[in-house]
Specification:
197 residues, mainly alpha, 2 domains, two-stranded antiparallel ribbon, 8 helices, 2 strands
Length: 197
């Protein structure tokens, strides 16, 4: 575990935005497969840290050569889009309007676009985030409710995918998910009928 803090000359107003606590090398993945393994609250702090760090070093990033400069610009844009998305969810309101939901969707797709251009991997979590944003209109701000139920569904899909043969992979996943859905639907109907009698 370590505490990473920007030097004071980098931080504009508030040092709390530039501090990351309990960051371990294991949370950053490997050299050939870099990936952040963090919870949402940890990611929130890291996002602010990265935003502050990139903004304060913008002039240095401009001096990089060719491809590195281009990737750095994409990372800055991706970070700005992610910070704007974060502002939508940090509003503190439980109910999110269609306009705010669309705004969040636009910020996230902008993030994905710049992040992938910078060489960042698009993972299944990115796809999951799109669905999370879609649901904000009728479920509200995801910061106000638990998302663990959806997380367990990702694990279930991963188990199903591992059990399928590569030749029939896509069809088998759809078939097994449909079977699981039908089984759960029958159980819900059966429980409802029990309650009525």
């Amino acid at each position: 575990m370590t505490n990473v803090t920007c030097p004071p000359y980098m931080c504009r107003n508030d040092l709390s935005f530039c501090q990351v606590w309990n960051l371990t090398l294991g949370m950053l993945g490997t050299e050939d497969r870099p990936a952040l393994g963090a919870k949402a609250a940890e990611s929130h702090g890291l996002l602010q840290f990265v935003g502050s760090f990139l903004t304060s070093h913008l002039s240095r990033l401009e001096t990089l050569g060719g491809d590195k400069r281009r990737k750095a610009k994409y990372l800055v844009e991706a970070t700005n889009a992610a910070l704007n998305l974060d502002l939508v969810f940090q509003s503190g309101k439980r109910k999110i309007s269609r306009g705010e939901s669309q705004n969040a969707f636009n910020h996230f797709t902008k993030f994905l676009s710049f992040y992938s251009k910078a060489g960042g991997p698009i993972t299944p979590k990115c796809h999951f985030m799109l669905h999370l944003i879609q649901r904000t209109v009728y479920k509200g701000n995801p910061k106000m409710y638990t998302t663990y139920r959806d997380e367990s569904f990702n694990g279930l899909i991963a188990k199903i995918a591992r059990s399928c043969h590569r030749r029939t992979w896509m069809n088998a996943i759809h078939w097994k998910c449909r079977e699981l859905h039908c089984k759960n639907h029958k159980k819900v109907i059966k429980d409802l009928l029990k309650k009525e009698t």
